[in-house]
Amino acid sequence: MVKKLVVASNNYNKIREIKQILAQYPLEILSMGEIGVNIDIDENGTTFLENAYKKAKTVYDFLGRKFMVLADDSGLIVKGLNGEPGVHSARFAGEHGNDKKNNEKLLKLLENKNRESRNARFLCTMVLILGVDEVLEVQGEIEGIICEEERGNNRFGYDPLFYVPEYNMTFGEMSAELKNSISHRARALKKLKIEMGKYIEKKV
Question: Where is the active site (predicted)?
C-alpha cells in the first residue's frame, strides 16, 4: 500500500531530490501545494531543529494528523562570524530569499578576514513525523570555505561562495547531480533513509 508523505515545502528541486533518494519506499511524496496546504509558518526558532520540527508539526496538525510530514531547516555556519548567518541564512540581509544581498553582506563581513575565519559548513536538519508519538530526526553537513568572490553559474543561495576543497569547486560550479549527491541535504536524506528502513522493519 502506497502511503502519502507530505514535504513541508513547495521547493521543486528539494522535493525532486527527496523523491530520488527515497524512491525505494512505497511513498507518494507531495509538496504542500499539491495537497492543498497554503499556510505561512513563522520560522522563529533559535535552532535548525526547532524550525524543522515547527514546520513539520504545523503541517501535520493542519492535515488532521493523517499523513506523514517531512520538514527541513538548513543554513550556513561561518566560523569567523560566530556561527552566522545560521538560522537566519535565508534572511541574512533582512529580506527573505534575496540571495544577492545575502551574499554581498557575507562578503562584506568577511573582508580582510584570514583563511581560518572563512571556514564554514552547510548544515541541514530534518524532522519526519510518522505518527503522534513517532518522530525521526537526522542531520547532515558538509564543510567548506567561503570564497572572496562568487564563482560558478549556479546562483542559488550561497552556492557561488561555498568552496569545497575535495572537489576544488564551489557549489556554484558543480553540476546539480554532483552537488545533490554530496550536499548537506543529501547527507541528511541518506541518514533518514536508513532510519526509515529501521522503522519499516519494526512495523513488519
Answer: 73 (proton acceptor)
| 185 appears as a binding residue in the annotation | yes
187 is in an annotated binding site: no
| CATH code for the domain of 13 | 3.90.950.10
- Which of the following is catalytic: 40, 61, 72, 73? 73
Is 73 annotated in a binding site? The answer is: yes
Say how far apart CA 118 and CA 167 lie, in whole Å: 17
Of residues 7, 123, 18, 124, the one with CA closest to residue 71 = 7
Catalytic annotation on 72?
no
Q: What is the largest CA-CA distance in the chain?
A: 58
> How many structural domains compose the chain?
1
- pLDDT tens over the chain, length 204 residues: 678 899 998 887 788 888 888 888 888 999 999 998 989 888 889 999 999 999 999 999 999 999 999 999 999 999 999 999 999 998 999 988 899 999 999 999 999 899 999 999 999 999 999 988 899 999 999 999 999 999 999 888 999 999 999 999 999 999 988 998 899 999 999 999 888 888 777 765
Read off the pTM: 0.89
Q: How far apart are CA 180 and CA 168, in angstroms?
A: 16
